[in-house]
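Lecture notes, structural biology module. Today: joint structure prediction for complexes of three components.
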Amino acid sequence: MPEMPEVETIRRTLTDKVTGRRIERVDILLPRLIKWPGAEEFRALVTGTTVERLDRRGKYLLFRLDNGYIMVVHLRMTGRIYFVATGAPQDRFTRVVFGLPGGDALLYADSRTLGTLYVLPENELWRIAGLASLGPEPLSPEFTLQYFRDTLRDRKVTIKGLLLNQQLIGGLGNIYVDEALAAAGVRPDRKAASLTDEEAQRLYEAVNFVIAQGIEHGGTTFRDYRDGAGQAGSHQHHLRVYGRRNEACEVCGTPIAREEVAGRGTHYCPRCQH
DNA sequence: CGCTCGGCCTGTGCGC
DNA sequence: TGCGCACAGGCCGAGC
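The predicted structure, tokenised, for the full assembly:
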């Protein structure tokens, strides 16, 4: 579900609620979500620790614990992780409960149950392949125009497929890819290598822009996404193509098209994007 | 090595 | 109202 802006928003809204707090209990309602080590070892390693800080890499959340271990959470499509105070209403999709002092809790909820949780020491993070191989993130110093242009060169994939590849650029997902391509005026099914230098630069700037906007608006909530306090984001009100099939393009009035590109539902303006 | 595709799961909304 | 189908914000591994 969540892409980098959503996960970053969760990190920001959850940090103050969990740092310095002791995880008194861990209830695992769906053990198969624990990918490393086993569910029982996970429970034993996390129980009784205190969260020292909360970091993010790409779409991964990293809870640094005071026993030297790091709890890593990936929300995939429909995962949510948020703080609930004592007496808060139940979430019907709760899969893991981290009990905090005074009856508060950190909930991991997930309707499709595709999310993944791990607990590892720092020097074993390589076990999480998707984390270890993550490419530079938008807005980071490593994500330069030069890097982006070099990455497009000679690639036979569609530009959409390239932008979704986490090993090349970490953190983009289906919504922000469609939005960046729309902002740059580039059709999603173009071969990556076919972009001119000027198009590559426009797209580079668009990627950074849509990610920054997404964070500013607290993420995009269609259905499942909630921040670390359980609140919805507002970026869904600022989308120009995603989820707007058959609606008029705000620039030219042409109906927004939807078709499959790189195996994903893809939205674009047939007139504004070339 | 680069790339495409199917699979993993379950829920929701729509058309009939 | 009920039913079947399309679709879903992600990623991994098999196979070409």
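Point to remember: Chain A has a mean pLDDT of 95.
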